[in-house]
């Protein structure tokens, strides 16, 4: 006797107004050569570059992710999405989920409530620079500006070697970043964008790179800024200044195309060479090319011109300062501040290893993801930073106004990104602008908001936000090289409210933990209370990235071979609304067929929306660049570059300047010194609090029990629908979770009708009708 939720049907029918966008992703290796050098790259459904996701504000996005990589674990983060109430869908490994091991599947589903330009990327062990990143555009039916057409340009650095090799290689071991081999525009060195004359284009610029920021020029076209990081701005014409984006940032500009098609125009992009070389006192290799070119094509018969050439560029004078932008909604400065946090950030030798630190502590991943810890240690402990281990935890109270100061003691730039919020930027110094000593007198009354802010070397920034989004949020430098050496903190926002505010992880997230395996309850070490026995917080050099085999971190893997011919299978399909609402479900005429759990629902097979834009990436026709360095970049031993910027030697060991501010940083979590305690080395084979071993029982329906096993139901029925010419079959698939707190219980699933899939939103299981009998 299968269970059938009539509520599911009712929801499906009633949901006709809200659009669900369902994606079914199979992550696999593909071979591609975006700069002419072919290498294995992580693609989606056999395709790379990864597809742009287009949704409309208000939609629900549902993504089933299957890890078909064979030799790496993974996880997808939705950069900039607030995840209000759905923090468990944030996709950050070690924070909101376990790594998804090869051969496993998990689902992300969340409401998209902010319009603008976002992106998605792996948030697992330095993986995204191997290609697993793409754009997420949230369209707005009523944007505050007019435009006729739009296109997206991604900017990134690119490496010929794979991240696991680079992370375990000699350059990273010295505490340095490997030099990128190329700059890419839209994952190519040969991007051409067809444009029409006399039109206003919205150009969405997304920096999806690993390390350096980028700036770009569209020759002959004025650019007016209208959005940063999903926040509309008052239109800001760049004039004769350059615009730039740091890793993780987005910027949208309006351009007006020419009145005639007599000529094509180059788009010039360059990686920040100060960041790559000069601030770090490293010499640019001979013939190094930090530039990339793309073209605005008015007429394919006309030649593609060379890009403009620029001379000396002053990094303080020649750029639009994003702090001077004004949000279009003119939201006022948040004040007064209830809670100030000061982060002293820099490089240091930790356990003899070059690392980055936040208030003298380098981030070391916990055994239990921090959100799972917050959910399971109980209210007695969830607001105690000590239970989270060495994740640089900061506990916020619900709805307080939080000010974070980031002092950058390092001799390079760091783009800091906060999950779960767009923060106000009150001030940000120029390069060598000094550390925080209070606010300057000219802080804007309507500060710009964004989710990623570039903090200059030997300078600082001050940001504010309201702690109105309970959850566990990473606050980290977005340079993936730096993430991997600990430049991260964890914001634990209103943990005392989670029972009422944050959905519990759905079944597929527990399945990922079970398969990895990783424990899902207890403190950072998987123990009760403050006992952190077994949590090894010794810093190690390098790492193996996301590499995963039976013996994790070794290379003798049995990975699937990269596909040679990317499939043309569309990977996105908006689930259409049922055109005619079936009236209330008719009495079911057929006995529910108990079904074994099916594999992932089929992707929709509708043809992709015809586009006026040349969306397919150009075939690579260039011969592989005779590069002198497909192998690891040399350890840097070169002579000093005469620089006007006094840069301290790395790693930084200077003591942070004592702040004059009364408010002290949060107490640092001191994990016990791993001197004598036995600790679990990778791979984790011990899982003391391992949920599936402890609770193999099915959920009971009487409201008792703690973390019962997730329950899945699948029913196939036939409906006699007056609006359709023939009877049709429905399959209802439901997942139910009962959490420690009743309010976190979830009920999700989908209805398959005529081969189309309609997702069911989370709902209160109390509303679900009792068992339906045939
Ligand atoms: C994922 O793709 C690989 C390579 O094409 C294929 O072998 C595998 O069966 C696919 N897995 C799923 C779950 O679609
Ligand atoms: C563009 O607009 C101008 C001014 O209205 C007009 O003269 C010109 O013909 C237009 N160009 C095209 C290609 O339509
Ligand atoms: C990159 O662009 C800059 C600025 O126009 C130029 O000076 C430099 O020569 C270019 N580098 C290469 C390798 O083309
Ligand atoms: C970091 O360590 C240094 C040297 O031990 C000490 O002077 C400083 O106060 C510490 N800073 C913080 C923020 O804990
Ligand atoms: C505030 O004033 C300082 C010093 O005059 C200046 O450098 C900075 O750019 C100003 N900041 C803003 C946001 O206007
Ligand atoms: C992982 O497997 C793919 C596919 O076989 C391979 O191309 C890639 O080099 C492997 N990665 C590492 C780091 O071994
Ligand atoms: C950039 O690449 C994305 C992903 O492949 C594609 O959807 C988009 O159309 C491309 N844009 C241009 C201007 O070529
Ligand atoms: C730059 O590097 C050289 C060689 O490693 C070293 O001698 C010099 O002191 C460094 N300069 C600065 C300002 O760090
Ligand atoms: C902790 O891990 C490090 C690096 O893997 C290792 O060298 C050290 O022996 C471990 N410490 C303990 C107490 O197991
Ligand atoms: Cu950084």
TrEMBL record:
GO MF entries: copper ion binding; ferroxidase activity
Compositionally biased tracts (Polar residues): 674-688
Metal-binding among keywords: yes
Low complexity bias (residue ranges): 559-574
Signal peptide bounds: 1-18
InterPro entries noted in UniProt: Cu-oxidase-like_N, Cu-oxidase_2nd, Cu-oxidase_C, Cu-oxidase_fam, Cu_oxidase_CS, Cu_oxidase_Cu_BS, Cupredoxin, CuRO_2_Fet3-like
Region described as Disordered: 546-728
Record domain Plastocyanin-like: where: 27-142, 149-301, 364-496
Name used for this protein in its record: Conidial pigment biosynthesis oxidase Abr1/brown 1
């Amino acid at each position: 006797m299968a269970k059938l939720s009539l509520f599911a049907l009712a929801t499906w029918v009633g949901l006709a107004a809200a659009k669900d966008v369902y994606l079914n992703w199979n992550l696999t290796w593909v071979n591609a050569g975006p700069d002419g050098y072919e290498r294995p790259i992580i693609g989606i459904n056999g395709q790379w570059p990864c597809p742009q996701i287009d949704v409309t504000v208000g939609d629900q996005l549902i993504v089933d992710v299957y890890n078909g990589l064979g030799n790496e674990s993974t996880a997808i983060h939705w950069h900039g999405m607030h995840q209000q109430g759905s923090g468990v869908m944030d996709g950050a490994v070690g924070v909101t989920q376990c790594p998804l091991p090869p051969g496993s599947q998990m689902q992300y589903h969340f409401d998209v409530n902010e319009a603008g330009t976002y992106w998605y990327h792996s948030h697992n062990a330095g993986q995204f620079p191997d290609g697993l990143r793409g754009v997420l555009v949230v369209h707005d039916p009523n944007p505050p500006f007019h435009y006729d057409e739009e296109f997206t340009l991604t900017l990134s650095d690119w490496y010929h070697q794979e991240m696991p090799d680079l992370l375990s290689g000699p350059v990273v071991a010295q505490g340095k970043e490997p030099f990128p081999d190329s700059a890419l525009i839209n994952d190519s060195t040969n991007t051409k964008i067809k444009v029409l004359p006399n039109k206003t284009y919205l150009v969405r610029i997304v920096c999806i790179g690993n390390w350096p920021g980028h700036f770009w020029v569209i020759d002959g076209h004025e650019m007016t800024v209208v959005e940063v990081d999903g926040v509309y701005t008052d239109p800001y014409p760049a004039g004769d200044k350059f615009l730039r984006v740091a890793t993780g940032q987005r910027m949208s500009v309006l351009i007006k195309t020419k009145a005639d098609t007599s000529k094509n125009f180059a788009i010039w992009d360059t990686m920040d060479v100060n960041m790559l070389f000069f601030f770090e006192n490293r010499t640019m290799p001979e013939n190094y090319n930090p530039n990339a070119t793309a073209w605005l094509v008015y007429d394919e018969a006309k030649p593609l011109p060379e890009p403009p050439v620029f001379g000396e560029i002053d990094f303080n004078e020649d750029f639009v300062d994003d702090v001077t932008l004004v949000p279009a909604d003119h939201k006022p400065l948040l004040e007064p501040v209830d809670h100030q946090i000061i982060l002293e950030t820099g490089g240091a030798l930790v356990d003899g290893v070059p690392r980055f630190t936040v208030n003298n502590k380098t981030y070391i991943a916990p055994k239990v993801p921090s959100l799972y810890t917050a959910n399971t240690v109980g209210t007695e402990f969830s607001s105690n930073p000590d239970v989270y281990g060495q994740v640089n935890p900061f506990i916020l109270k619900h709805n307080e106004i939080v000010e974070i100061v980031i002092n950058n003691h390092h001799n390079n730039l760091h783009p800091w990104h906060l999950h779960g919020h767009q923060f106000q930027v009150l001030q940000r110094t120029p390069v060598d602008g000094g550390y925080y000593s209070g606010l300057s007198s000219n802080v804007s009354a309507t500060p710009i908001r964004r989710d990623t802010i570039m903090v200059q070397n030997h300078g600082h920034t001050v940001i504010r936000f309201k702690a109105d989004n309970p959850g566990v949020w990473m606050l980290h430098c977005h340079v993936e090289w730096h993430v991997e050496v600990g430049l991260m903190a964890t914001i634990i926002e209103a943990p005392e409210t989670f029972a009422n505010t944050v959905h519990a992880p759905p079944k597929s997230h527990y399945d990922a933990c079970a398969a990895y395996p990783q424990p899902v309850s207890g403190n950072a070490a998987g123990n009760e209370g403050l006992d952190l026995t077994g949590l090894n917080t010794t810093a190690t050099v390098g790492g193996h990235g996301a590499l995963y085999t039976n013996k994790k971190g070794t290379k003798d893997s049995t990975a699937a071979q990269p596909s040679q011919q990317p499939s043309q299978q569309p990977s996105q399909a908006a689930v259409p609304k049922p055109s005619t609402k079936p009236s209330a479900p008719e009495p079911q005429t057929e006995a529910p067929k108990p079904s074994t759990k099916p594999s992932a629902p089929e992707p929709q097979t509708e043809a992709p929306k015809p586009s006026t834009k040349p969306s397919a990436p150009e075939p690579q026709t260039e011969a592989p660049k005779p590069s002198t360095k497909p192998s690891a970049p040399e350890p840097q031993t070169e002579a000093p570059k005469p620089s006007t910027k006094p840069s301290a030697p790395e790693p930084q060991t200077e003591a942070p300047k004592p702040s004059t501010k009364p408010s002290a940083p949060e107490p640092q979590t001191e994990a016990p010194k791993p001197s004598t305690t036995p600790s679990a080395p990778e791979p984790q084979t011990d899982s003391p609090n391992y949920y599936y071993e402890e609770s193999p029982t099915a959920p009971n329906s009487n409201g008792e029990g703690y973390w019962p096993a997730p329950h899945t139901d699948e029913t196939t029925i036939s409906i006699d629908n007056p609006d359709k010419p023939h009877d049709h079959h429905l399959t209802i698939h439901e997942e139910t979770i009962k959490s420690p707190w009743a309010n976190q219980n979830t009920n999700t699933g989908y209805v398959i009708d005529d081969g189309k899939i309609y997702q069911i939103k989370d709902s209160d299981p109390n509303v679900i009708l009792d068992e339906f009998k045939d």
